[in-house]
């Protein structure tokens, strides 16, 4: 095979683990008899950058075999390398490499986040294109991404194969983009037969590579402050900024070391390796390198780091980055908004590892054993197999152009949501809290419907025709969603109920009932009790859905706020939560503010015991709801002195979508019964 690597970064000398991994992968393909070329670049274009690269190569024993008007040519490990250095025209340079080399396979990766080279690669008429995902921050989809783009995601679907550096990464790609990514080893090591045992308890440093915001420098620096008796060392690389260098230089127990081609130069001085990343690390090469030399690694439990650690302690939870600013730093890395971190668990582990020698030795031995066993089976053959299989298949063709491309259902929903959020001024609701309330004929029965967390009024509008014979459906729209997206949402139950009491007070002159699902059940219950306290008319009936009886929250103490990742995973566990939202980054991004505020509201909601309500009460639930059981529903019976019954339906927490027909049939019967009781 003829393989061309599009490397939109420095190939050699390596500035990061991904650069080194790409180099070793290409050299392994050469050893298997394939012809490999790399198209790469320097950090800074121009004569100065060109000369610096020549000097860097010659100082490492690499003799360039020529130069032309664009850059440098040399060979390393059997790989032919073409370096763009004198000209900034990267796309033209890469196209020239394709035309000259005529590759069978073009390998691209996330070191090209702007898709400058990928876009050219997929247009090559015969070459199959492979996309390597080494960093989820650099893909245009999902919660780890620094810049979500549906259009760029669609472009990536033109790759003939997408390969993730870890199972975590491959799963992330499949989940958030729909691309059928696979995981095969692409982060190879040097010859594992000669890995020296470098770990010593007497080694001077707790070390970190590439200390910067996304890699957890805040944890590293605070540990140094808390442990002045311990010596720390850092090797600044591509991510470290000037202010971060200054902060480390201010600490007398932090030593800054120069970058080195051979990582053993650092590892032979390292007692413990710290990897406190606060972004979703794809795998982290340094973890395996340190462990293979018998050095304990303490890493954060994010992304693919649990895979890299191979089951050996320690993995420590962090508060991961969930948001990036629309800017980049001096290294062209997206600027992250790093949340506060709890250093206490890190300090506890580090205090033990730096003082308890028997424990250190046990962990060091376990680390080396696990790493060497893994490395013994690490080779290029699975990746080579992927490339060979592609050549037996036709190249993926671009979609046929259409004058009016059809929108997917998810994009239709996204477009509709955006139009509703941005065109409020053009078509405002006469009543933003109770849309359509003025259309209810005088004296007609009203059914006020309260939303679940993150929900709005729109889902309930589909009920209007189906319940029109019994009641006029009046959906409740809370601040922070749909046409009220710009308004700050409520985060506590008390103030929200007070506001709702004011809004519904003018419309209590005719019979009405309340329906609420999940969070909406709690709101409708507390609003009913507020009406009773004020001596105002009560609902004909109260219908609660997908919620435990409130007495389960007696003396409730709010739990800690979950991380963004845990929060999204909890949404995923709620069977029936709209996949069109969870699996569409742009929809999720729009929905998250209201979801987070509503979750905060319900997390802090505590029940205060009062007498039961004097009205019929009906409770509904999903048979497969993991959080609300039949027992939880039955307990609602203690909240009424009148008729009570509960019903279960097929489905999970959001059964009201999957079993809508059955639910509305039961709701009609219950409304009829309640009106007869009244």
TrEMBL record:
**CDD domains linked to this entry:** GT4_PimA-like
The protein's matches in Pfam families, at most eight in alphabetical order, are given as: Glyco_trans_1_4 (PF13692), Glyco_trans_4_4 (PF13579), Thioesterase (PF00975)
Q: Where is the Thioesterase domain?
A: 446-670
Listed Gene3D superfamilies: alpha/beta hydrolase (3.40.50.1820), Glycogen Phosphorylase B (3.40.50.2000)
Query: Which family does this protein fall into?
Result: Belongs to the thioesterase family.
Q: Return the protein name.
A: Glycosyltransferase
Record's keyword annotation contains Transferase: yes
């Amino acid at each position: 095979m003829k393989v061309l690597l599009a490397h939109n970064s420095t190939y050699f000398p390596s500035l990061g683990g991904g650069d080194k991994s790409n180099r070793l992968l290409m050299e392994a393909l050469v050893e298997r008899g394939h012809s490999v070329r790399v198209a790469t670049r320097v950090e800074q274009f121009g004569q100065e950058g060109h000369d610096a690269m020549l000097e860097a190569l010659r100082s490492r024993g690499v003799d360039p075999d020529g130069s032309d008007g664009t850059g440098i040519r040399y060979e390393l490990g059997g790989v032919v390398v073409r370096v763009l250095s004198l000209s900034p025209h990267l796309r033209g340079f890469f196209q020239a490499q394709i035309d000259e080399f005529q590759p069978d396979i073009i390998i691209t990766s996330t070191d090209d986040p702007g898709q400058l080279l990928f876009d050219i690669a997929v247009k090559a008429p015969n070459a199959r294109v492979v996309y390597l995902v080494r960093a989820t921050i650099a893909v245009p989809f999902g919660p780890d991404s620094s810049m979500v783009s549906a259009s760029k995601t669609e472009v990536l679907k033109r790759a003939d194969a997408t390969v993730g550096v870890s199972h975590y990464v491959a799963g992330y790609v499949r989940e958030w983009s729909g691309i059928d990514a696979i995981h095969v080893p692409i982060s190879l090591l040097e010859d594992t037969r000669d890995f020296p045992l470098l770990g010593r308890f007497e080694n001077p440093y707790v070390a970190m590579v590439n200390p910067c915001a996304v890699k957890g420098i805040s944890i590293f620096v605070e540990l140094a402050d808390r442990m002045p008796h311990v010596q720390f060392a850092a090797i600044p690389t591509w991510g470290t900024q000037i202010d971060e260098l200054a902060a480390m230089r201010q600490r007398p127990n932090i030593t800054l070391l120069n970058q080195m081609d051979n990582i053993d130069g650092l590892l032979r001085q390292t007692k413990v390796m710290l990897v406190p990343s606060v972004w979703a690390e794809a795998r982290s090469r340094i973890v395996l390198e340190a462990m293979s030399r018998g050095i304990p690694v303490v890493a954060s439990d994010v992304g693919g780091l649990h895979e890299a650690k191979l089951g050996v302690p320690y993995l420590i939870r962090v508060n991961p980055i969930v948001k990036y600013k629309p800017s980049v730093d001096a290294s062209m890395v997206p600027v992250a908004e790093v949340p506060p971190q709890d250093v206490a668990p890190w300090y506890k582990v580090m205090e033990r590892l730096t003082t308890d020698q028997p424990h250190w030795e046990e962990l060091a031995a376990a680390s080396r054993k696990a790493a060497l066993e893994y490395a013994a089976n690490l080779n290029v053959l699975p990746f080579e197999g992927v490339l060979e299989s592609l050549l037996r298949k036709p190249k993926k063709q671009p979609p046929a152009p259409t004058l009016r491309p059809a929108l997917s259902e998810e994009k239709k929903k996204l477009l509709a949501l955006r139009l509703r959020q941005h065109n409020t001024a053009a078509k405002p609701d006469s009543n933003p809290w109770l849309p359509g309330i003025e259309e209810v004929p005088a004296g007609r029965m009203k059914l006020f419907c309260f939303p679940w967390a993150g929900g709005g009024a729109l889902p309930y509008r589909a009920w209007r025709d189906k319940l029109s014979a019994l009641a006029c459906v009046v959906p409740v729209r809370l601040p922070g969603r749909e046409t009220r997206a710009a308004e700050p949402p409520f985060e506590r139950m008390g103030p929200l109920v007070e506001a709702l009491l004011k809004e519904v007070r003018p419309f209590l002159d005719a019979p009405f009932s309340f329906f609420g699902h999940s969070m909406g059940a709690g709101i409708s219950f507390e609003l009913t009790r507020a009406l009773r306290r004020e001596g105002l008319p009560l609902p004909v009936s109260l219908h609660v859905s997908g919620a435990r009886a409130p007495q389960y929250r007696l003396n409730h103490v709010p739990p800690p706020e979950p991380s963004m990742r845990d929060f999204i995973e909890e949404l995923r566990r709620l069977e029936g939560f709209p996949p069109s939202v969870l699996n569409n980054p742009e929809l999720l991004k729009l929905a998250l503010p209201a979801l987070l505020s509503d979750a905060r509201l319900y997390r802090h909601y505590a029940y205060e015991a009062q007498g039961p309500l004097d009205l019929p009460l009906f409770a509904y639930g999903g048979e497969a709801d993991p959080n609300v059981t039949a027992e939880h529903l039955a307990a609602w019976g203690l909240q009424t002195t009148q008729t009570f019954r509960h019903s279960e339906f097929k489905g999970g927490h959001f059964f009201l979508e999957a079993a809508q027909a059955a639910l509305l049939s039961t709701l009609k019967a219950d409304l009829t019964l309640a009106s007869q009781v009244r």
